[in-house]
Amino acid sequence: MRKALVYTPPGYNVNTLYPVLYLLHGIGGDQYEWMHNGNAAVILDNLYAKGKLEPMIIVFPNGRAMKDDRPTGNIFAPDKVEAFSVFENDLLEDLIPYMEQHYPIKSQRVDRAIAGLSMGGGQALNFGLNNLSTFAWIGGFSSAPNTKPPKELFPNPEKDKNLIKLLWISCGDQDDLISFSKRTHDYLLENKVDHIYYIEPGVHDFNVWKNDLYHFSQLLFK
Ligand code: FER
């Protein structure tokens, strides 16, 4: 049994089918991190109030797929870091099917997005680009060292690039992890893969990630 939070948009109606964003947390977080530290519901509510977002369901999973999935003790311990990679299978085989059985969710690839911050950004890029039959909208915010090296991340750019609706790579300009975003961007540019590379003022913190959610969410499903 694992936990996830679900945000439903204003006017939510179970007789409508919605696209869905899976939004992932960082190495010290869990399913609550975006809500508690990122004020995600406030950002989203305000964007909806201004008519700037497509109606969508947002799922905040716990992306540390191990029995004790809490961010306690040494959060950098190898088994805990490995659990962020194990989550790919949980997401595809368990959480996505669960969500589609229990919520009014569209199930085409073009109606599914994945994004995350730091470890969650690495997950979003790794899982999204590895599963383009499942995801068409992908965002990595300040992606961590778990991001696969570019050639592994997206080995067949010529063949696969047209499947991508949005590929967003962002990072704070003072973030020590910026090289993981930069090398991904360089590779995508070299291989003529359309993407957004958004460098903003800031370090490795929620000032940056709140801004990313604000901008990225407005691009989805349009
Ligand atoms: C590392 C530095 C940072 C690392 C992970 C992170 C697994 C993740 C940071 C975060 O999620 O905020 O060396 O290795």
What would your notes on this structure say?
The protein has 8 helices and 7 strands; from the N terminus they run E-E-H-H-E-H-E-H-E-H-H-E-H-E-H. It has 222 residues and is α/β, with parallel strands linked by helices. It starts with a strand and ends with a helix. It has a single domain, classed as Alpha/Beta hydrolase fold, catalytic domain (Rossmann fold). Helix 2 (40-49) runs parallel beside helix 8 (206-219). The protein has a 7-stranded mixed sheet, sandwiched between helices. It binds 3-(4-hydroxy-3-methoxyphenyl)-2-propenoic acid. 3-(4-hydroxy-3-methoxyphenyl)-2-propenoic acid binds at residues 26-27, 81, 118-119, 144-146.
Q: List the bound ligands.
A: 3-(4-hydroxy-3-methoxyphenyl)-2-propenoic acid
Q: Which whole number gives the mean pLDDT?
A: 98
What class, by secondary structure content? alpha/beta
CATH superfamily: Alpha/Beta hydrolase fold, catalytic domain
SSE succession: EEHHEHEHEHHEHEH
Largest sheet composition: 7 strands, mixed
User: How many strands in all?
Assistant: 7
Pick out the low-confidence regions.
none
Main-sheet strand order equals: 1-3-2-4-5-6-7
Which overall shape is indicated by the principal axes computed on the Cα atoms? globular
> Cα distance, first to last residue?
34 Å
CATH architecture: 3-Layer(aba) Sandwich
